[in-house]
Amino acid sequence: MKNLIDKLQKQRALSKEEFVLLLGNITEEASEYLFDIARATAQKYFGNRIYVRGLIEFTNYCKNDCYYCGIRRSNHKVERYRLSREDILACCSQGYKLGFRTFVLQGGEDLKYTDDDICGIIADIKKNYPDCAVTLSIGEKSYESYLKYHEAGADRYLLRHETASPQHYARLHPKGLSALERQQCLYNLKQIGYQVGAGFMVGSPYQTVEDIAEDLLFLKRLEPHMVGIGPFIPHKETPFADFPAGSLELTLFLIGIIRLMLPNALIPATTALGTIHPKGREMGILAGANVVMPNLSPVNVRKKYELYDNKICTGEEAAECKMCLQNRINSIGYQIVVDRGDFCPVEINV
Ligand code: 5AD
Ligand code: FES
């Protein structure tokens, strides 16, 4: 397996068969070998610097009904909420004081916000905080809508592809949602000029090693600036309530692989990773991740944005989350930076 990892490092890619072989033979030894190289690769571009993005979960209304997601339309047990423009700006103000220079506006696919509403919110944030990046994560929209948001000042867009395989996609989503349409959205976003984030869940129901190999090949084709991956975690009020959570080891291994495939990519150590293991996010950074996304949402709505059971950080204040993450990151020899944390095309000398 070391040969395959060396080959991946040199060529930044493997064939589908090689990925399948590698993923089917994960050992502790292979993982340690991979993580050492992945960490060194991240350090070539980022040193010991970890970027932070303040996550504002501004609506949990969603018109979609994805089988895995806790805020799916059919879950009548969640109390729905929307944040107003003023609420969102208050989150940014608090985040700015805490040193955040990227705000991620994330929500379900909520048609109540028109394109003009979204553009107005983006423009307000950019006016008040011209030194900050605005990231959107609000699902599948038309090319024209994406263009409008970009013209209003949005810099980045997160849209996980969820799974690259059309067959697997169809087992995770109701009819009407398709893998190819989702992938087209990502190509549209890239063409418009966003820094784009894709990604997928590890261990989602029915996922095979071949599916994961397809995910990796898709990421290679798309070449996103960011890649968010986290373990699938069941939510009790969804059709997937009884499926097991994805594995920590496999998620970490994939972070390492993606770091070697896309050496300067922005890779978050996700909240889901921190949920399945108390040190999950630290382990993610030690496997090659370089971004954390603390929650900036108002405390009174956090529990309502539960995509999966037992999500962490839902009882903390923004300042507590920031301090908690800072301590965790310092404890493994890394540092949080106050910076927009843009995609960086060249190696730095540190
Ligand atoms: N477990 C883990 N991740 C999930 N997401 C949605 N539901 C779950 C779940 N049950 C992820 C999806 C989505 C992102 C916002 O959260 O990948 O794109
Ligand atoms: Fe909201 Fe899937 S349930 S995007």
TrEMBL record:
It comes from the Bacteria. S-adenosyl-L-methionine binds at E162, R182. GO terms for molecular function: 4 iron, 4 sulfur cluster binding; metal ion binding; transferase activity. Transmembrane segments: none annotated. Binds 1 [4Fe-4S] cluster. The cluster is coordinated with 3 cysteines and an exchangeable S-adenosyl-L-methionine. Signal peptide: none annotated. [4Fe-4S] cluster binds at C62, C66, C69. Residues 48-270 form the Radical SAM core domain. GO terms for biological process: sulfur compound biosynthetic process; water-soluble vitamin biosynthetic process. (3R)-3-methyl-D-ornithine binds at S137. The keyword Transcription does not apply. CDD domains: Radical_SAM (cd01335). Pfam families: Radical_SAM. Its cofactor is [4Fe-4S] cluster; [2Fe-2S] cluster. This is [FeFe] hydrogenase H-cluster radical SAM maturase HydE. Keywords: 4Fe-4S, Iron, Iron-sulfur, Metal-binding, S-adenosyl-L-methionine.
